[in-house]
Structure formats: structure tokens, C-alpha cells
Amino acid sequence: MREIKPIICAVDMKEFARISFYAYPGMSSSYDKLLERLQEINSKDKNSMFYVVKDEQKAVGGMRLIDYKMNYRNEFINVCGVGVVAVDLAHKKMGIAKDLIKFYLNKCRNDKQPIAILYPFRPDFYYNMGFGYGTPYLTYSFKPHSLTNTKDRTGWCYLAKEDMPLIADCYKRVAQKQHGFCLRSSFELERYKKRFEGNGVTIGYKENGRVAGYLYFTSKKSSDTNFLTNYIKIHEFVYTTPKAMQALCNFLYIQSDQYDRIEYETQQHDFHYALSDVRYTDQDISPRIAHKAYIGGLGMMYRIVDVKMWFELLAAKYIFNCADMSLAITVEDSFMPTNNGTYYLNITNKKLKLVDKADNQIALTVNIAELSSLMMGSVRFENLYRVGKARCKEQNVEILSDFFNIPSAPQCLTSF
Fold first, then answer.
1. Collapsed DSSP state (helix, strand, coil) of residue 2
2. What is the DSSP letter of 395?
3. φ, ψ for residue 20, nearest 5 deg
4. Out of 92, 266, 340, 388, which residue is the most buried by the measure of CB atoms under 10 Å away?
5. Separation of alpha carbons 177 and 128, rounded Å
6. 3 state DSSP class of 157
7. DSSP 3-state assignment of 216?
8. 61, 52 in Cβ contact below 8 A?
């Protein structure tokens, strides 16, 4: 008989480390190092728990679940992330990963965590389980002198591990304003602090005694045959004011004599406006004379775990800047069939109410994955309608676009 339970003994953790090591060979250079890392997380991170799957008392898979507080439209809500979903090599294609994700989603529902989040090892796998796409990540590669030189060097400072409270305060202020950001736990802050003891530089910008922005980066070799050729890889670029952003860009600008390029992965899709030369450093060009400016990829995915709970949360906490309307939203969810059905909503004076039935409803049929992306603001409703992923009468597209309009697409710097 198959069962999923928390890892509370050393033997199960060793088995989970073995399974994970072979499931994700690139995750660690050795089994012993991976085991040490997992044991540290298990003992110190009070917001996460490892789970093991046992089949006839034999460990065949496992995962890690992490509780977060995520900014949803300027209010923090409880969400849960899943990571290190691993299956023993000899037990693949037996539905173990599916059982793990079902357990995870049901736990979210029971714990009143209406949104599940993850980084997919394969987007199609999780899309078929009802997870919707988040905001794409764009990787820019540009010359340092493409940034603006403000010639103002006041306010710069090196930040060390002793400055973690200032860095944490800066991050928290951004998280309080940015839709999709997750607050950092004490464990995550401690791990972040360890970065300062290794490779990397953190430059801060201070205003009125507080860190208004910071830039964490490492130096990488551009060539195996020329040690003088290097580039900057930005890991975090966080700022609370335009002045802080411009000051940190100015710091990067003056590095052009030592670094031939800068790599920066971000969900800020307008970052190229900060560049005077938007071209990717390989300078590829398409037949339409479109210059390559970045490489894009889909990462974070989101899922509404309980549709009724979700609409009740929206009714209790949020306003909708749209006209009064009555909606009949039919949700299709093959992975969690309890979500299947039609939900009747009234929006009156910018407030939503879940009702038993409504008159003159605007009908919409949508899959749970697309509904999750819509509610997170990852996609515009009219774009989903255009590709056939949202079904309604054409005359209602504009009205529904107003209902689903979220000013900011979600962004997230949290890794798990």
C-alpha cells in the first residue's frame, strides 16, 4: 500500500537524498553534500517539511513543501510551494509524482492556502495538472556602457553580512508593493547571508540612512583562454526608488573597462528602456530586422487549489475596478474534479459576492490553469480569448477583460 508521510527520521532522509541525487544529477556534486544540505534545511527551516512516498515500506519518492506569504494585489496571502519532487529511477511511470502533487494540493486546501506555486521541471507536466503559467523571465546580455552614466557616485556603499537587516528591510519594502513577491523567512535570510561569505559583491544605495536599493552580482569568466575577459552576472537587483535604480545602473556603467558584458534575468519586461543599446551581445537578428534583445523562458507556475475558497477570499479582501456585472464562470479541472462546476458571481459597487444564481449572467468557460493565470495577472483575458483558451460571447470580451484586469504581472525572486 502506498502512503505519503513527513520525513521525521534519519533513515527516510537518507533515502530521500538518494532518490533526489539520481533524479536531479545537477543539484549537487555528491550524495553526501546533498544529504548535508537537505538535513540542514530540515532542521532549520520551520516553514518547510519534507515528505517521503513509501510503497510496501520502501521509499520510492518524495518532495519538499514550503509555506510562504505572497503579495497578492498588495495584501499578503498564505500560499504553499513545492520543490524537489523526486521519484526513484526504478519506480517511474507508476503515478508517484501524480500522487505527490495530489497530496500537496489537498494539503493546501486543508491548510487554507488557496494558491499553489512551483518551478516546473517540465511545464507541460504541471500544466496538465492545472498549473497556469506565470510571468516569463527575460535574460538580458548587454554592454555596461548601454546603461546611463549619471556621474553621481554619492550614496554607494559595499554591503556585508552585518548589513543584512538593512538589506532585508529593503527587500521587504519592495515585497509589500510588488504583486507576486514572497516574504523571506528567517531561514532564507540566513542562507542569503552566507552568500556574502563566498563569491560575490553586494553594492547598496542609501537614502536617509536606509538601503533604498541593492545589487548582488558575481564575476564570471567570458573565456577559458583569456583570464582578463570577464562578465557580470546579476543575481538580485532590488530598489525602492527610481533614484536608487539609476545610481546602481551608474555603478554598472563604470565597470566597462573590466567586464565585457552584463547578464541579468528579470521579470521586468520593460527593462530594455533602461538601455541605450538593447542588442543582446551575440547581436543575432531575425529576417524581419528584429534585433535579439533577450532570451525568454517560463518559470514560476500558479494554481488555484479551491475555486470556491478563492472567490470567497476575493470577496472578503479585494475591490474590482470594473462595471457592475453578473458572471457565470464554468471551471474545468480534470485533476481536482471537486472544482468542476459553474460559479455565480455578482460585482456591485466594486465588490464581489459569490451567489447561488444570478440573472443576466455573462457566461465564461475556462480551464483551471488559465483561470489561475488570469487571476494572477500573468495574461490578459483578451489574449486568452484570441487563442481559444477562454470561451465566451465576443461582445463580452471587453467586459471580462475589465474584470480580470490586474495592473501588475506577478514577479518573484524566491527560489525553492
1. strand
2. G
3. -65, -40
4. 266
5. 32
6. strand
7. strand
8. yes
For 332, list phi and psi in degrees, rounded to 5. Answer: -110, 120
- Compute the distance between CA of residue 226 and CA of residue 208 in angstroms, rounded to an integer: 43
Domains and CATH numbers, the chain: 3-113 (3.40.630.30), 138-298 (3.40.630.30), 306-404 (3.30.1050.10)
Q: What is the pLDDT of residues 301-319, one digit of tens each?
A: 999 999 999 999 999 999 9
The radius of gyration computed from the CA coordinates of the chain, to the nearest angstrom, equals 23
Closest CA to 51 of 40, 37, 66: 66
| Strands 201-207, 210-221: pairing kind | antiparallel
Q: Which DSSP symbol is given to 81?
A: E
Q: How many helices (H) and strands (E) does the chain have?
A: 11, 19
Report the greatest alpha carbon distance in the chain: 72
DSSP code at position 177: T
Give pTM, 2 decimals. Answer: 0.94
On the question of pLDDT at 358 being above 90, the answer is no
**Euclidean distance between CA atoms 109 and 127, whole angstroms:** 19
List, for residues 85-108, the tens digit of each pLDDT value.
Answer: 999 999 999 999 999 999 999 999
